[in-house]
Amino acid sequence: IPFNIIDTALSSLKNSHSFIDSGMDIATKTALDLVESFNDEEDVNSMEKVMLEFAAMDRDLNNYIRAFEETVNQVKREKTEIIPDLEKLVQEKLTAIESKNSDSDLKSNEKYMYFMDQLQEMKKQFRHVSDDDNETIEQIDEDIAVTRSQMNFICPITQMEMRRPVRNKVCGHTYEEEAIVEIIQSRKQKKKKVRCPKMGCSHDDVKRSDLVPDEALKRVIDSQNK
């Protein structure tokens, strides 16, 4: 069996993930745009359905790749002289894998979880902005509200307003991307862990892989600055 051809085909198949990822990124940005523009809730919720469809595509692709790889590895191990029916073997393996599928698989997709998290933050932040616009409050209360809001914009490392905020998936705190990455790289060279720089946080092992862009917070900061 020309396994090099099979490996090339598998490699091309894995590259399809990039198209799914791009679609999910676009859907996330579109949903945040809708919230920022105070669009209908129904329009915003429709983007969640799109994300679940992408998550299903991602799961199906992963299942097929897994079934194909396991089948090929099995054939390689057995070194049989008779060429097996690969298509049939893959389909049998795929059926077994898909029998364990559940709806929870889709909602545990990393990009879907990021989408829901950012959407929730965006709704919360822009609901506050809308409330502030529509309500008349005394100047002293307004100053306090603005000060509290701006506190969330300040990086605990640089003590300056964040331009590219990233959030730690583990503890939920946000930092300026460049600042936290620089600390992680510096400590990594010394083979030391990084404690979350947010005062009072007990998380003592901040990893670069735990950081995700906080698009919702960035949009609120940009909106306030306008």
Automatic annotation (TrEMBL):
What SMART domains would the database entry show? Ubox (SM00504)
Could you mention a single GO BP entry for this protein?
protein ubiquitination
CC per GO annotation: nucleus; Smc5-Smc6 complex
Name the PROSITE patterns on file.
ZF_SP_RING
**Does the keyword Transferase belong to this entry?**
yes
Entry keywords, A to Z: Ligase, Metal-binding, Nucleus, Transferase, Ubl conjugation pathway, Zinc, Zinc-finger
Entry's localization field? Nucleus
The metabolic or biological pathway listed in the UniProt record of this protein is: Protein modification; protein sumoylation
Q: Spell out the protein name for this chain.
A: E3 SUMO-protein ligase NSE2
